[in-house]
Here is the input.
Amino acid sequence: MRERGISIWFFIGLSLLVNGILIVSAGVWQIFNPPANPVVLFRLHANVWWGATLLVFGLMYCIKFAPTRQG
Here is the structure.
């Protein structure tokens, strides 16, 4: 039997997942502890939205290209 390596897309998904978790965590922290001088569009909480987007895409990539799913 031929042994296959782990797909690079799994590692990209892992990177997106970890970065998404970190960005969402920082965004939630800023919601409860707002900075003294917030940026102009602080009320939109872009870091929470973009972090959640990265988290979802990272999770999708990790599930789709998981090493256990490779045939």
About this structure: The chain has one domain: 8-64. DSSP finds two helices and no strands in the chain. Residues 8-64 form one domain.
